[in-house]
Amino acid sequence: MSRTEPRRLAMALVLFALLALLFGAPGVAAAGKPKPPPPPPKPVYWGAWIGNQLTGTGAPWDMGAANRFEELVGKGMSLLEFSSPFEICEGSSCHFYAFPGEAMQNIRAHGSIPFFSWGAELAPRISEAQPEFQLADVIEGRYDGYIAQFATEARDWGQPFFLRFNWEMNGNWFPWAEGVNGNARGQYVAAWRHLHDIFTAVGATNATWVWCPFADGKGKLQELRSIYPGNGYVDWACMDGYNWGKNGVNPQRWKSFGQLFDSTYEQLTKKVARRKPIVLAEFATSPNGGHKALWIKNMFEKLPREYPRVRGLIYFDGLDRGVDWPIESSGSALRAFAKGIRKGIYANNRFNELVGSPIRPPR
Question: Please, how many CA atoms are within 13 Å of residue 101, restricted to the half-sphere of its CB?
Fold first, then answer.
């Protein structure tokens, strides 16, 4: 080693120290300047999709069910979800589902924001095979008259609402998924845009469009970018996900909230809908194979810290094929949910005079 090399090393160390003092070394706060705290969590809409287990009729058809749910958790909901297909068959009689203005008004009068899931299908659905409701039927205009009438009634109602159209499209269990029911690649986006354009044409701009894939923790479902309608056709991104556990209908291993949603959240925020707020439109946990209350507690701890783009969440509080999703079915789960939702970031039912579309995240 030459005599000059130790001097050069010493000078380099001094220079590095000076730079660290001035600008802060990577991962270390500059001397005398404490590391800034993380930004406070932003407000979040919250609510539920409430089944008939509380009063015999689900909300919003019986708003007593919504009131009872709120009594149990100790807070008013800012969102209330319900759904319908395009067409309903009851016995030998079938009819198209009209815009649910009365139900929408019930929700708004309650101070909540309607969150309406609308599927291009016939109900009750026996399977995903519904040849009369292929995506090509929507694209080619078979239902234009019905869609235009529905959109016109939505326009005439005039108040803002969330519209979640043809959700969980990246799976294979709905008749609007590509690869099932005779649907071809590229048709999902075309059908979405066609329906959206009809709403725009009749002036139904009070609909806030929610695009909602199923959370794909294993990476086995359809790639999301290929079925994203585009930023001009989507107002909010979304995720659905369930911790089924070891139940008798769809037995799976117990999954944490992060195992369900981390991967899809990263895709949405970094690759697909990078500037869109996100809502969890359906999520729940069963008690089978784990601790339901602890799952809920951990979820509320994780959400504001690791999911800052999630600005709305809706718990599926209903029985589905005998699976015990409702939070009120377990005293400990109910207490965990009530404690989590009591935090001030979760907006209560103060939106009966909400105006403007698309609906923005709460402030």
Answer: 11
89: which 2 tokens?
């068959």
148 touches 113 (CB < 8 A): no
What tokens were used for 216?
């794909």
| Cβ contact 325:319 at 8 Å | yes
310 strand-pairing partners: 278
Contact 70, 112 (CB under 8 A): no
C-alpha dihedral sign at 250, 254, 260, 263: negative
Per-residue model confidence as pLDDT tens digits over 266-310? 999 999 999 999 999 999 999 999 999 999 999 999 999 999 999
Integer CA distances (angstroms), 320 to 47, 49, 89, 280, in order: 18, 12, 20, 18
State the residue for tokens 């409430």. 50
Residue whose structure tokens are 């001030």:
344
Q: How far apart are CA 300 and CA 337, in angstroms?
A: 8
Same domain, 284 and 239: yes
Expressed as residue numbers, the domain containing 254 is 42-341
Q: How far apart are CA 327 and CA 116, in angstroms?
A: 22
* Residues 79 and 178 both lie in one domain: yes
